[in-house]
């Protein structure tokens, strides 16, 4: 079986090899500080006894699972601590596929490209449902696309790449569609702390044996390299997922779990609000410059991405490389996210040089 390497790596390698200064707006790596309690937790961990450097419980440190469970209103036995949201999504999709209810996974278009990649890896087939111009998903469209072959419906809210935040009614209806077809709704909520609209609704708000929620601390705590995420599964589905996690990864980083637990306990809501406010300011700065460049763009309700369309400049990998060489700004081609946004480019607002990048784009396209 052939797996396609995600275009993220190709763009990053091209930008790194450029002979000029390039502002990186490719990947969602936050440029701001992690919580101070996380740094303190890592320092404290270095002085613990040798037994703390051995294998942790495979499903995660009990104290961390209990903390997550208390915050999410579930039982700790439903929580598996994973190597980021990436592994959590893999476990969820694999668990849905092994129920033998079909091998089709319904995805949105545009789509975060790792979801179709994981579908291929698991031997499934993709079926895409288009979102509207604002990135909103109509549950009736999902219902029309679903069938007896549907193993899972995968959604991401707040969304990458559109910045859409699905309202509570949408989430309830998506769970209902999964129940109707004996499928599993998988809701990736890794950007939940970057809801800029106040309308975020978790799939956990609808109690069901047909939904799995994935998340991580990678974005919310600005620690994409620490690799601590989690999956919350219904009691009926959790055992096999724990076994697969053990066979694939054995366990997740013990120091990272310890530090995340300290940060959860000691970090107040002001930390997350400061980061949301930073993003609001960057969105305004960036979109003002896009206005000046005559571009069409999305204004995110959540996450930290803006999609833009420039006249006669489709979102191809060749045009992204051209933009790196000639403007010194690296974004992602819209074609990486499916068929519906091939005219667009996606930019991650996770650099302190957002204003400079916007000025470069405005000058290039004026």
Describe the protein's topology:
Blueprint: H1 7-17, E1 23-24, H2 36-45, H3 62-72, E2 79-82, H4 84-97, E3 104-109, H5 114-121, E4 125-130, H6 139-145, E5 150-156, H7 168-180, E6 184-188, E7 211-216, E8 229-232, H8 238-249, H9 254-266, H10 269-292, E9 296-297, E10 305-309, H11 317-327, E11 329-330, E12 332-333, E13 345-348, H12 354-365
Parallel strand pairs: 1-11, 3-4, 3-5, 5-6, 6-7
Antiparallel strand pairs: 2-8, 7-8, 9-10, 10-13, 12-13
Helix pairs in contact: 1-11, 2-9, 4-5, 4-8, 6-7, 10-12
**Low-confidence sequence ranges:** none
Order of helices and strands: HEHHEHEHEHEHEEEHHHEEHEEEH
Fraction in helix: 25-40%
CATH superfamily of the largest domain: Type I PLP-dependent aspartate aminotransferase-like (Major domain)
- The CATH C-level class name of the largest domain: Alpha Beta
Give the beta-strand count.
13
Folded structure, characterized:
The chain is α/β, with parallel strands linked by helices and 366 residues long. It folds into 2 domains: 7-34 and 269-365, Aspartate Aminotransferase, domain 1 (Alpha-Beta Complex), CATH 3.90.1150.10; 54-266, Aspartate Aminotransferase, domain 2. Helix content is 40%, strand content 15%. It has helices at 7-17, 36-45, 62-72, 84-97, 114-121, 139-145, 168-180, 238-249, 254-266, 269-292, 317-327, 354-365; strands at 23-24, 79-82, 104-109, 125-130, 150-156, 184-188, 211-216, 229-232, 296-297, 305-309, 329-330, 332-333, 345-348. Strands 2-8-7-6-5-3-4 form a 7-stranded mixed beta sheet, with helices on both faces. Strand 5 (150-156), helix 7 and strand 6 (184-188) form a beta-alpha-beta unit. The model has no long low-confidence stretch (mean pLDDT 96). Residues 21-361 form the Aminotransferase class I/classII large domain.
